Amino acid sequence: MSPGPFPYRLVATDLDGTLLRDDETISRRTRDALAAATAAGAAHIVVTGRGVPWTRHILDDLGYDGIAVCGQGAQVYHAGERRLLTSLTLDRQLAGLALAKIEAEIGPLAVAASRDGLHGDVLIGPGYRVQEGPLPYLPYKDPSELWAAPLTKLYIQHADLDDDALAQTARRIVGSLVDIVVAGPGIVEVLPLGLSKATGLSLAARRLGLRAADTIAFGDMPNDIPMFGWAAHGVAMANAHDELKAVAHEITASNEHDGIALVLEHLLAGG
Q1: Helix H or strand E encompassing 264
Q2: How many angstroms separate the CA atoms of 78 and 73, rounded?
Q3: Using one digit for the tens of pLDDT, what is the confidence trace for 228-245?
């Protein structure tokens, strides 16, 4: 019996911990599975917390010329045309107020920020623990530098609270002003209220004439929960955060073991 048609018209993939292996490469098997899915008529949209400047080199390596959702949904980027289609910034006055309220209750935060735009810098403040890797950033010492240009997001760290505890505490204190998400190990983000990967993905899908019902989504962290809520089918990686696994329709192998490819190959075979 011949394989049936591929059941989804849109494949949405997170990057870190999902499409990317831990060394930030994409396996040949996963590349081939995505190519087969697109050959079968599906669109592939990368949906990442990374801003465009930290995403572009990965898209180039993939030969990706379609639409990507970056900055946790804040930026809809056309890779082929190298231009932003939409961009939402964080209200700096609200963000400053949110930081002040959090610090008033739990003490000093280490803060970093992503500036808006195709070439927006990532600013790293005193005490902020940066993950090792090739992604560029600029250190700052004067707090006024943080607010000198439009921002897409802030990153916060605390000396004593882990990621989940910091996010839960910050939501309790300032959840009516901004959104707080855990986007990766050591990465707690402050976002515009109501912004999520789901809002960015829905905008990108609409441009392609596609809907939530057409979509299978892959992710690994709590910031992927809204995307799973929007998509018809959400697949968590084996390495995913427990909060995401709890809402996933399916759990696949890890990002190190071709979890995306396993699911796509099964669907392409008519499974």
Answers
A1: helix 259-268
A2: 14
A3: 999 999 999 999 999 999
